[in-house]
Amino acid sequence: MPSSPAAPRVVAVVVAYNRRDLLAEVLEALAGQTQPLARVVVVDNASTDDSADVARTAGELVDLVELPRNTGGAGGFAAGMAVALADHRPDWLWLMDDDTVPTPTALAELLGAVAGSDAVVAGSRVEWFDGTEHPMNTPRPKPFASAAERAAADARGAMPIRSTSFVSMLVRTDVVREVGLPIADYFIWNDDFEYSTRALRGRRGLHVPASVVVHKTRVLGSTDADPGHRFYYEVRNKLWMFRRSASLAPWEKALYGGSSVLRWLRTGIRSGDRATLADGWRRGWRDGTRFRPRPNADALAGLGRASDAVAAVEAS
Questions:
Q1: Quick one: DSSP state of residue 189?
Q2: pTM for this prediction
Q3: Is the per-residue pLDDT at 110 higher than 50?
Q4: 140-156, pLDDT tens digit by residue?
Q5: What residue stretches are annotated with the Glycosyltransferase 2-like domain (predicted)?
Q6: CA-to-CA distance for 311 and 316, rounded, in angstroms?
């Protein structure tokens, strides 16, 4: 009898910052996947609690990368993905935050959906504590997907997507090497929108509802909930994306740009602190139009092993 094909080698990348108890829960859930992981790369973003100790004592599955400064979610994922590529020979990377708790079959369902297909990205259904679908992590369906593509996805219990979230994103590593890493200077917000659309431009991705993770945020909020001072990153990063990234076609930039303006208006109308939002908008507009993100090799310099891995990936 012919031997069955080897299971793909999957390395999870978890970015951690000051949520030790949740990180312990995430690592336990990753170790308990029905489809075993090859390794789990935990990037500790200079936490001031003992998150690093939690990862350090979690067992041989975990490879801890301790950063001397907080690089945000964007920098953490760039560093962790680079280390995974450099040291662990993955076929796929599975990306998540330290408050993302996967159900036992989450990875198996993702891999089952992409097996034998040309999909290069897959995302999970993201729920809150009560089982409600989390509005913060809703994927964007692929506009104008052909009937054949929709039918092929439906046969796998999935939906064609144009973007997905770093709260459980599976991405094929040959595509990572082709399109590069997330842009570290985004720091937080829209880094996953830019990266997933970059990875999916001209390629296919799937949303897989049977793969379920629980995003344990404090509140159940959508992307137009009042962000306070973080509104600066929303504005700056969207401007960087629409003006400088090649992740979207021109017509998509017009479509998603208009959607973003409407979302900003809704955020302002609902806000209880419009002065803070106005300040964030002014600073975000200034920096988003006057400056551009630095190359990752510069933004993530001085981080030892992580910097070396980032430089190697970016150079290739």
A1: S
A2: 0.93
A3: yes
A4: 999 999 999 999 999 99
A5: 13-151
A6: 9
At 273, the amino acid letter reads D
Q: Would you say 80 and 13 are in contact if contact means Cβ atoms under 8 Å apart?
A: yes
Q: Rounded to an integer, what distance in angstroms lies between the CA atom of residue 159 and that of residue 140?
A: 10
User: CB neighbours (10 Å) of residue 302?
Assistant: 9
Which are the contacts of 61, defined by CB distance < 8 A and separation ≥ 6? 30, 31, 37, 39, 40
Q: What is the CATH number of the domain that holds 141?
A: 3.90.550.60
The owner of tokens 């137009």 is 224
pLDDT at 266: 84
pLDDT of residue 3: 41
- Give, as one character, the DSSP assignment of residue 267: H
Backbone CA torsion sign across 38, 92, 256, 241: positive
Distance CA(224)–CA(136), nearest Å, equals 9
Confidence of residue 259 (pLDDT cuts 50, 70, 90): confident
The alpha carbon of 270 is separated from its chain's Cα centroid by a whole number of angstroms, namely 27
- Both structure tokens of 83: 């280390």
Domain membership flag for residue 38: yes
CA 131 vs. chain centroid, Å, equals 21
Two tokens at 2?
């012919």
Tell me if 47 is assigned to some domain. Answer: yes
Residue holding tokens 């996805």?
153
Res 198 pLDDT > 70 = yes
Q: Phi, psi (5° rounding) for residue 117?
A: -110, 180
d(Cα 12, Cα 56) in Å, to the nearest integer?
16
In a domain, residue 81? The reply is yes
* Cα gap 134→136, rounded to integer Å: 5
DSSP 104-149: TTHHHHHHHHHTTS-EEEEEEEEE-TTSPBPGGGPPEEPTT--HHH
Give me the pLDDT at residue 132, please. 84
Domain boundaries, position 94? 10-220+292-315
Task: Count structural domains, the chain.
Answer: 1
Distance CA 12, CA 93 (A): 6
List, in sequence order, every residue forming a beta bridge with 33; answer none if it has no partner: none
Q: What are φ and ψ of residue 120, in 5° steps?
A: -110, -10
